[in-house]
Specification:
Largest sheet: 6 strands, mixed
Strand content: 15-25%
Shape: globular
Helix content: 40-55%
Radius of gyration: 14 Å
């Protein structure tokens, strides 16, 4: 599954001004819940927070992939936020996080969940793409960068 199938432009935010992990998860929950009228921002937040309590989804190098499985969800959905200033996210390298790709998958989609997470790990290991994401000046260019990378990765 390519990023363009998970993400839409209205769920991409550039230079979000949040100061904590909780506020960032609230922002991402709001973006994700906008993808479907059946999704509650509170349910999404609770799902993401429950996963974070198991261990930080911070990867290091300023990147985090908050994610979770949610009952009643029809298909995987994602949101992306680039923060104005990095926040403490309990990342393994202790570096502030400024790039967050949030992912929700249906409760029963274990294989799809793992495959998407593997794809995202490849994306965020691509230093050139990460630099470009940090240099983008608007949501359109962030979205385009993410979807173009995914198309190249799938080829």
């Amino acid at each position: 599954m390519q990023i363009g199938e998970l993400l839409s432009l209205d769920r991409v935010v550039v230079d979000a001004d949040v100061a904590s992990k909780k506020r960032t998860l609230e922002l991402l929950s709001g973006l994700l819940s906008n993808s479907s009228p059946e999704l509650s921002s509170n349910d999404v937040f609770d799902t993401l927070l429950a996963r974070e309590r198991l261990g930080s989804t911070g990867l290091g190098a300023g990147v985090a992939i908050p994610h979770g499985r949610l009952k009643g969800l029809d298909k995987p959905v994602a949101a992306f936020a680039r923060l104005h200033t990095g926040i403490d996210y309990d990342a393994p390298d202790k570096q502030p996080v400024d790039l967050l790709f949030a992912l929700l998958v249906p409760e029963e989609c274990t294989d799809a969940h793992l495959n998407i997470l593997a794809q995202l790990a490849r994306l965020f290991r691509d230093e050139e793409t990460v630099e470009h994401l940090r240099a983008c000046t608007d949501s359109d260019s962030l979205y385009r960068t993410l979807t173009e990378w995914s198309a190249r990765d799938a080829a």
